[in-house]
Specification:
about 260 residues; 13 helices; about 65% helix
Length: about 260
């Protein structure tokens, strides 16, 4: 399987720029930052043991994408012909992609990731990334939530509010896929969120929290409960706003008219 096919299988699009979350005309520094952000999201050190193999695969794909786009000749070939040189130096098979990452960026720890998430969430950078993802995927919340850094599906109410404000301010268009999203899609995301929460709880129990961390455990449990309630409230709001039952002979109406 070639790199573009790997990108499509892992990230839903055979596009190196999209895999790194950057625009086609991005500068080398923007591509480097994009690679850093995207790789933090799938870094093998931040996932439970049972997910490490998949995270490692995705991490390696991102490394290959960056290797191509950071090489002027390889990038020109990709931009002009839509293909990559699979036999070139950038994609040599024996390359250790975690070592490659460490040479580019400082050594990462779990605390580094947690600190990054704290500063990233609700930042100007996150706001820009959310709006960019909304535009790239034309309002498809499934793809937006997969693309935005440092979020899981229980973050959806917060992400959706960011987009709604941007629509109200006419900073982004009102896509039909967003304003008229079927309730079933939102429910599917809720089910995924609940599954992820169960898996996280299982991993936490298997790994255990050391002595003296009871307060942290209680905080995590309380946060999960609050976020689940927020997701439930969001679904009720979504149904009321976009899914009202029409009166006999009438038609459903959306709160905002989508442009697409």
């Amino acid at each position: 399987m070639g790199l573009l096919e790997e990108c499509e299988a892992a990230f839903g699009a055979a596009d190196l720029y999209r895999a790194l979350g950057v625009r086609r005309g991005a500068s080398p520094e923007e591509i480097r930052r994009g690679y850093h952000r995207a790789s933090l999201r799938v870094h093998p050190d931040r996932v439970p043991p049972e997910d490490k193999e998949e995270a490692t695969r995705r991490f390696q794909i991102l490394g290959k994408a960056y290797a191509v786009l950071s090489d002027a000749e390889q990038r020109a070939l990709y931009d002009e012909q839509g293909r990559v040189d699979e036999e070139g130096e950038a994609l040599r098979a024996e390359r250790d992609w975690q070592e490659y990452w460490r040479l580019l960026f400082k050594k990462i720890s779990v605390k580094d990731i947690e600190d990054f998430e704290k500063t990233y969430k609700d930042s100007e950078q996150e706001l820009a990334d959310v709006k960019a993802a909304y535009m790239d995927f034309e309002g498809d919340m499934d793809k937006i939530m997969e693309s935005v850094l440092c979020v899981d599906y229980t973050d959806e109410p917060r992400i959706r509010k960011i987009i709604e404000k941007a629509i109200d301010r006419k900073e982004v268009p009102s896509y039909k896929a967003f304003v008229k999203e079927p309730k079933q899609k939102a429910m599917a995301r809720k089910r995924r969120a609940e599954k992820e929460a169960r898996e996280a709880e299982k991993s936490k129990q298997e790994l255990g929290l050391g002595d003296g961390e009871d307060d942290l455990k209680a905080l995590i449990q309380s946060r999960n409960k609050d976020r689940k309630k927020e997701m439930d409230d969001f679904l009720s709001h979504l149904e009321a706003k976009y899914g009202n039952n029409p009166k006999k002979g009438g038609k459903k109406t959306a709160a905002k008219k989508g442009k697409k």
